[in-house]
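Weekly structure sync, notes
Attendees: PL (lead), two postdocs, one rotation student
Agenda item 3: pending single-chain targets
PL asked that the sequence for the first pending target be pasted directly into the notes so everyone works from the same version. It is reproduced below exactly as submitted, 328 residues in total.
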Amino acid sequence: MYKKYSFSKYIFICLFSTTLAVTSNSLQVEAKSRPKEKILQGENYEKLINQGQLRTYYIYTPKSYNPKHAMSLVLVFHGDSGSGNSIAKVSRFNNLADQKGFIAVYPNGLDHQWSFTGHLRKKVDDISFVAALIEHIERIRNINSRKIYATGFSQGGILTQALACKLPNKIAAFASVAGSLTARFVPSCHPSVSVSIMMINGTKDLSVHYDGDRISQKEALVSIPETVNFWRRHDQCAFSSQFQKLTGTKSSNRLRVKAFRYSGCRNNSEVLQLAIVNGGHFWPGGTSSDTKLNQLNIQLGFNASRAIWSFFQRHSLSSLRTIAKPNF
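Predicted structure, written out during the meeting:
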């Protein structure tokens, strides 16, 4: 009885082992024939549906991206009549993304414009779109939700200011270039948390006036000093200091950068203003098809994109750390 049981058990074990071996080999063949998941690095053009509209964006994933490790996300918004691709070229955030290790996303506005209260014809609110876009990006990339940032130029800078009012719980820090708050938006801007924001503006900007617009104008913009003071009051900043970085002596335009930093703010938030003295409507340190503007940028010797990333790195949604000294 014992021998029969042992022999039967032996036969069962052999058959079971053979089955496992065949199954294992089959799985190995299947695994070899199944293509590995492709990690999308470099430039990619993507789309999503939001508020009944097809929305598109340009995303840059650096070579250092690893799906197992969360990365910071920088949203970059183009100006009026621009595109995600155009602001990517001007700002050169892709190069910085490779050097510093973050994902850059450049959304496209409908009809190359941004709407803060609803598109006149298509009834689309771009603030809601940005919130949906962030959730979408978090599904397709491993994003550090504490380190999502927003910056933009001109109308994209105005959108960035609006996002500071409406999405400070999703975005850790903001930086507007040649942008400001709209007078119509100010009464409804009551963020429930402190806001870390950086502003870069030319004092001779003929599109986004440093001294603001007449209130009677449609979509009038608040002056740059008033906008800075708005955020200082909101963040309850206690201290201010001024630094000044001068351009080289060869500068015929007498361009220079004046920096005003407001610290001692609630929850370690920070307000930083960079005034490009005698500067116009441009992205400092960016590229352009205008050779004169490129020469002006060389004379200025200041890179807005690098300064913005340096500012972003000092802030995260749950960070209570001491603010580091700015590095220009």
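Discussion points:
- The mean pLDDT is 85.
- Helices lie at 2-33, 84-91, 93-100, 126-140, 155-166, 224-235, 291-300, 304-313.
Action: rotation student to compare against the earlier draft before next sync.
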